[in-house]
Amino acid sequence: MHLINRTVAALVLACTLAHAQDSEPEPVLPAAALVQPALLSGPDFHVVPEVAVRGYLADFLIDTKYGPLHADSVELLAIRVAELPALDALERASRSGAFAHALAERGRKTGRALVNVFAHPIDTITGLPAGVARFLGHEWELWSGRAQTLADRGSREFENKGDPYRAPPGPMTAGRDAAPDATEPPPEKKNRACYARAGAESAREARRYLKYGQQRREMAKVLGVDPNSTNPLLNERLDRLAWAAVWGNFSGGAALGEITGTAGQVLSYTGKIDQYVYDLEPEQLRARNEQRLLAHCSDAFAVRQFLRRGGFTDTLRTALIDEWEKLKPAAGCNELIELAATTQGEVEARYLIDALKLIRRHADTGGTLLVTGAGVAWRTHEGKLLLPLPVDYLTWNRELAAFVDQPALAARDRTALIGGAASPLAQRELTARGFSLVLRAPFDGAPAYAQSDFAAPAQAGQD
Question: Does 4 have pLDDT greater than 80?
Answer without folding.
Answer: no
